Amino acid sequence: MSTWIDTAKQIAGDGERTRDYGSPLVNFLRIAILWSHWLNYKVTPGDVAWMMVLIKVAREQATHKDNNAIDIIGYLHCLDMMNQEMRERGFSGVSLFDDCSLAVMQTIYEIVKGDKSE
Question: How many domains is the chain partitioned into structurally?
């Protein structure tokens, strides 16, 4: 029997999901850019991960489902994977996005989404 952590890591690190949506860094950058334009306020990939966690916390407050806990763990695992990818690219981690403009985020997104090593 797999644990919530095992299930979350399997889903978040799943090759099919990466194939469909890109790495968590690519996917969460895409979401951050879209949300930033919609909200007219800069949202970072790290913000996306934490806001997705909060969505699951709100759902859990209404009704307990194992899926909520699994997804919370999965979003935090994605945050960790984003930090790892940023460090592999020579940056300190996703906190880099806290101090850069939306235009810089969009440029980084274009670079990482086009990287054939995805």
Answer: 1
